[in-house]
Amino acid sequence: MQTYTIDSGNTFLKIGVFKDSILRDVKKLNISDFSFKFEESAPIIYSNVSKEITDLLPERAENANDLIRDFKTTYDPNKLGIDRKVISHYLQKNFPNEKLLLVDTGSFITFDEIDHGKHLGGPIFLGLANYLKSYPEFSANLPLLSEIDINDMTNTEQAISHAYMAYLEMIISQVKKYNQHRVILTGGDSHKLKDCGEIQSELIHHALFSLL
Question: Residue 9 pLDDT > 80, yes or no?
Fold first, then answer.
């Protein structure tokens, strides 16, 4: 029997398909035209799914937030994003004697420090794609870059490119401050930080699966 894990973002959702406890596939779907046929009676767990999507899920689908137990954190757990909570809970249970830094690189870049089984949180930065989107968002005269050009700054595109690279280098320097920690990278832009730690791109699905 298959098991499904559902992680929803602002525009897309991803459905992890497990069989025999192994993640076999991850399907990316647009929220606006969500349609998916689940295997009958197969377990389903979701996190951060909008009301319009939960209405389309089978009644047996379980909310990850209802299944988390003994989450140790310095935060108010009700004010911590569910994806951060799910993954941090998974890491503190599986690595109770380690110092970890989880860096999730999505719409925002979040740092979650976990020290010997306790979640300590960390800063939140604007995601790399959203950093670039902020230029045309705040000025109609500035472009949305489709590629980064770090040659000499002879035009606006190159000027933004240099600023982008400086921003990325700042993020990397922040990660490197945790030099006593095992660094785990996840999310869509994790490859851009690949020299900072180990990439586990589908960590959210393994964390969700572990709650069932």
Answer: no
